[in-house]
Design goal:
- With 271 residues, this protein is of the alpha+beta class.
- The protein has helices at 10-24, 28-42, 49-56, 60-72, 90-100, 103-119, 161-170, 175-184, 193-206, 243-249, 251-270; strands at 47-48, 76-79, 84-87, 122-129, 133-141, 155-157, 209-212, 219-226, 235-242.
- Helix content is 52%, strand content 18%.
- It has a six-stranded antiparallel β-sheet, sandwiched between helices. Strands 1-3-2 form a three-stranded antiparallel β-sheet.
- Helix 2 (28-42) crosses helix 4 and helix 6 packs antiparallel against helix 11 (251-270).
- It starts with 9 loop residues before the first helix and ends with a helix.
- Mean pLDDT is 84; it is low at 2-14.
Length: 271
């Protein structure tokens, strides 16, 4: 969970997914606009129209029309000197409205704070978007010399790390889908497919998932599913810490508290 979503391995793969989504969309105008916003959100510097068009597989003239419409809506900014585009403040307005109305985030925050303070870890709440990605929507970061940081809005591949094991365990996906998704994942210390499936089965049995340094070497990630009104898994609670530090306080204790927090939050969301 703690690996930055703008890592070299992640961004090119994301752009190909965006391009495929645009190509297969039944509402291409909306899909193009969304793809442009996501690409600009991942870029560390303003981007020119030809690069945007190339990475998303859009005709440059069409891409320019999309960009101009987004500029008019103040979602994208245009630098007339460099002829490049970047996200504008209008995106923050939309995000702020969403955050204000997100009940899951509000209910999760005190639980995250308690987990973070008790175990000296970074605790986050994650929203899952199908089999493609997950997004950090709330967090609590314990103040320590050794800490793992992330940011609200960070996106990660859906099946990676401990949350990925939860999605695979409780998502009722066919074996073929799981195996195909596993091929796309990038780990520091990758498990074999057999090991990953065994970890998924253990997650299903225990109700909580643990990644002991697979995703990021030396980092332990614990995640538990949060259920709401629907039957499909949409959220998890996640704790991220330095493996050596957690061994002193006990990973077992952390698993217990993350699971208890997720269960308590599930009950609140059902009411």
């Amino acid at each position: 969970m703690a690996r930055p979503s703008s890592s070299p391995n992640f961004e090119p793969r994301l752009n190909r997914k965006l391009a495929r989504a645009v190509k297969s969309s039944k509402a291409p105008a909306i899909s193009r606009a969304a793809a442009v916003l996501r690409l600009l959100g991942k870029s560390e510097a303003p981007v020119g129209v030809h690069r945007i068009a190339r990475e998303l597989g859009i005709v440059p003239s069409t891409c320019l029309h999309v960009l101009r419409a987004l500029v008019a809506e103040e979602l994208v900014a245009f630098d007339s000197d460099t002829k490049r585009y970047s996200l504008d403040a209008g995106v923050l307005t939309l995000a702020r409205h969403w955050l204000r109305r997100n009940r899951f985030k509000d209910l999760a925050q005190p639980i995250l704070d308690q987990i973070g303070q008790t175990h000296g870890v970074t605790a986050v709440a994650v929203q899952i978007s199908g089999i493609d990605h997950m997004v950090v929507v709330a967090m609590s970061q314990f103040s320590s010399a050794l800490q793992i940081s992330t940011q609200i809005g960070s996106r990660f591949p859906a099946f990676i790390s401990a949350t990925g094991r939860c999605i695979a365990a409780f998502g009722d996906y066919p074996e073929s889908v799981l195996e195909e998704q596993f091929k796309t994942l990038r780990w520091d210390e990758p498990p074999t497919l057999a090991e990953w499936k065994a970890q998924i089965a253990e997650t299903r049995e225990r109700g909580v998932a643990v990644d002991m340094g697979n995703y990021i070497s030396g980092v332990t990630v614990v995640a538990a599913p949060v259920w709401g009104m629907g039957t499909r898994l949409k959220h998890t609670l996640v704790a991220i810490g330095i493996g050596s530090a957690l061994r002193k306080s006990g990973v077992t204790s952390l698993q217990k508290d993350v699971l208890a927090g997720a269960q308590a939050l599930s009950r609140q969301l059902e009411n």
